[in-house]
Design goal:
By secondary structure, the protein is of the alpha+beta class. It folds into three domains: 185 residues, Cysteine proteinases (Cathepsin B, Chain A), CATH 3.90.70; 101 residues, no CATH class; 132 residues. It is 44% helix and 14% strand. It contains 18 helices and 14 strands. β3 and β4 form a beta hairpin. α8 packs parallel to α10. It starts with 8 loop residues before the first helix and ends with a helix.
Length: 471
């Protein structure tokens, strides 16, 4: 911290008069309840604490969203971003960051104390930026809720400390952390009264259970120390945090052309709910990187040479040498599991593998025949496919214990058949709404295709498959 310039005696007198017993002070506000927030996100936390005291439904995540801050940076709002967000949430914003010269600093601080005193007396807390203390090395924001006359101290809520309610600090120490060096003989001070102009409680209309941009930013902050090296870059498309050692340009292209369009279309067509937690998506640029980093990051060998989901790590892991089809495939799994309780493996893998090769034109992603067709047609010719009732009954382990990949292929091309008959959305909706304890893949499928029995349908479906062509 810089040494502050000497304050003129008459200014010290003003401050002394204000802090002596019996002076007119605002007291301590008790209607702003303290809440703990992640380190690095104190600005969002301070605003939420105040909004809660007003009965508002806005939360820290809304502050972060309105700030426009990129969650891939893994940090919370600074003064600039906070100043952008606050008016959008109903706050009047005076000159928030004031830069003053050395000669005027003492008088300026006296004015700030007087304003703070008057606002606290009127029931208005202050939002203040402070430099780190000796226990915390993170620049942060606090909510000033009172001035203690007996202790000549400032009382505030620190949102990143579990014991941060009604913290007390001397005026002198508070000023040392409040004033920042801002150039030669120049200082900056950020402190504003938390006046909100919206009289009615704010409400938020949402029908989705969502992971927020702030959730992703908090996750990124914790993730960065785990990165294998500087070659790895991060991007965010909630609920996904994408980590990759591909080029920055390549990652941005995949986010723009693959990830975000797929999420938008799947949400519209199928998925009412997002996953309720952040999901990491690790995209390794080639097989060498894929094989090298997985054991160190996850403590196991790759479950597939293409990609796979690791539920225990809330992670999708993809070898991008296999193409964007593997990425789309893995992105489907968290959504299926968020929307269909105890989803059978054939359904989960069938829907995911449908999007391994797509027609990306238009507003709807449509699966196209892919390399699995050759395997399936060979299996049909050689009578090596499973009866569908057996496929539907397979648990995960026997489903995946299939070296030729016929189980995957059968599942995928059942979904492709339903898609081409414009029945996929109806089939998905019926499956999702069924009681898990009574759900029957056979019954739902036959009802969707208006079939009489599964054996007859399978013969019809296999004839459809044999007529397909790839490439």
């Amino acid at each position: 911290m810089p040494r502050h310039p000497k304050i003129p005696i008459f200014i010290l007198c003003i401050i002394a008069i204000r802090l002596c017993p019996g002076a007119s002070l605002g007291g301590v506000l008790t209607n702003v309840a303290h809440t703990v927030f992640p380190v690095g996100f104190s600005g969002e936390g301070c605003v939420e604490m105040h909004l809660r005291s007003l009965g508002s439904a806005y939360r820290a995540a809304d502050v972060f969203r309105e700030s426009g801050l990129d969650p891939a940076l893994g940090r919370g709002v600074d003064v600039e971003k906070l100043a952008k967000a606050l008016p959008r949430l109903g706050y009047s914003l005076p000159d928030s960051v004031l830069r003053v010269g050395r000669r005027k600093l003492g008088a300026f601080l006296a004015q700030q104390w007087a304003k703070m005193d008057a606002d606290l007396a009127a029931g208005t807390p202050w939002l203040v930026r402070l430099a780190p203390d000796v226990e915390n090395h993170v620049l942060g924001f606090v909510v000033v809720v009172g001035l203690d006359t007996n202790q000549q101290a400032v009382v505030y809520h620190d949102p990143i400390r579990a014991d941060g309610a009604f913290q007390s600090i001397s005026v002198a120490d508070f000023e040392k952390r409040w004033v920042f060096k801002a150039g030669f003989r120049r200082y900056s001070v950020f402190g504003i009264p938390m006046r909100n102009n919206v009289s009615a409680p704010h409400t938020i209309a949402t029908s989705r259970r969502t992971v927020t941009r702030m959730d992703c930013a908090v996750h990124v902050r914790a993730l960065v120390p785990r990165l294998p090296g500087s070659a790895f870059d991060i991007d965010v498309a909630p609920p996904f945090v994408i980590i990759s050692d591909q080029s920055h340009r390549r990652i941005k292209q995949q986010m723009r052309d693959v990830v975000r369009p797929a999420l938008q279309q799947w949400r519209t067509q199928f998925f009412a709910n997002d996953p309720d937690h952040v999901v990491e998506v690790w995209l390794f640029r080639d097989a060498k990187s894929y094989m090298k980093h997985i054991p160190d990051l996850f403590g196991h060998e790759p479950a597939s040479h293409l990609g796979y989901m690791s539920p225990e790590h809330n992670a999708l892991i993809v070898n991008m040498a296999s193409g964007v089809g593997a990425l789309r495939h893995e992105l489907v799994h968290p959504f299926v599991r968020a929307n269909i309780a105890t989803c059978p493996t054939w359904f989960d893998e069938g829907m995911a593998s449908l999007y391994e090769r797509c027609d990306e034109r238009g507003d709807v992603l449509r699966g196209l025949p892919n390399w699995r067709l050759i395997l399936l047609q060979k299996a049909i010719k050689e009578h090596e496919t499973l009866p569908l009732e057996q496929l539907f009954a397979l648990e995960a382990l026997p489903f995946y214990n299939d070296p030729l990949g016929v189980h995957y292929a059968q599942s995928r091309y059942l979904f492709l058949y339903l898609q081409e008959r414009e029945l996929l959305q109806a089939f998905y909706a019926a499956f999702e709404s069924a009681d898990p304890s009574e759900r029957s893949s056979e019954r739902i499928l036959l009802a969707t295709v208006d079939g009489d029995d599964l054996q007859t349908f399978q013969r019809h479906w296999e004839a459809y498959v044999m007529a397909l062509r790839f490439p």
